[in-house]
Amino acid sequence: MDQETIDKMIEEHELWSNYGGDVGKKANFHGLKLNDIDLRDSDFQNVDFSEADLRGANFNRANLQESNFLLANLQEADFERANLTKASLQKADLRFANLWYANLKAADLCRANLEEASLQFTDFSNAVMIGANLIKANLMDANFVGANLEGANFCGTALENTNFSDAILTGIVIGAENLPKIPSEIVEEYRKTFWLIESMKK
Question: Which of 51, 125, 182, 186 sits in a 20 to 30 Å window from 30, CA-based?
Fold first, then answer.
């Protein structure tokens, strides 16, 4: 699908959104091959991107609230400052993706693969991230307040200034070197369930 066709879909979707569905057409990208597509600053609330190939796509500053990225390939995609509130990213492949300052409040990232993703200053508050793969991800200054991280893998992650207040950390996999970076009261509550491993070289 070329950029001209995508631009037309964006225009039709914005009309559909702005006029309550009376004009235009809701976009649907399910299963499409959209490598390196440019969707920066677009408004795609509640749109279906499930199973789409979006490797290298640019979603910089896009509004993607409640959109569906189930099983989407988002390797190296750029979501910097994007709004993904309540979006579904279950089992999505986000390896090496950039989510600096992205808003993922209450998003569903169960079993999502975020290996080596850039997640600095990302807001994951109240997100559901059961079984998420965060190996070697950069989580400096990320916000996990109230998030469910049960069984998530934090091996080799950068956790400086990461906020885990009220997060569920049952059964996480974590390197022993990162324990001091988690508040002691949280470690005390969940430590018996942690899977501790030796340090991983980055």
Answer: 125
